[in-house]
Amino acid sequence: MPAAGQQAPASSLANCRRCARAADALPEFLFATLPVLRLLGIRALLPKALERLLRPRLLLQITVQAGQAAGGGLLHADDVFGFDWRVAVGDQLLSREDFEDLVREATGVIRFKAGYVYLDPREIERLRAQLEQPP
Q1: pTM of the model
Q2: Backbone dihedral region of 57: left (phi > 0), alpha (psi from -120 to 50 degrees) or beta?
């Protein structure tokens, strides 16, 4: 590690660039290359956390609104229940704000809690559009 005010050696910068390229290539390896290798009977060892790659998905959270009384004897679902979109990543429920924090500047395969999440930019935009729609 270089001292303050010094530049990193060229070999360190080259290693960082190689790591960045490898990270960019990981989704294609996991979703395109790895299935072909497995069909051919070639085993590939992956870390356990990558064996079950998570993807964000949208869930509708329903809550019962206590103390809501409907007048006139007719009940409407909006009077009894509250509806809100949540994003699930594995068994973790995220608020809209937490989801935005997760995807703000990340794409591809990223570390999340004890596992990894695949963030496809097209899927993220689709989820964002759905989050904007009222439940």
Answers
A1: 0.63
A2: beta
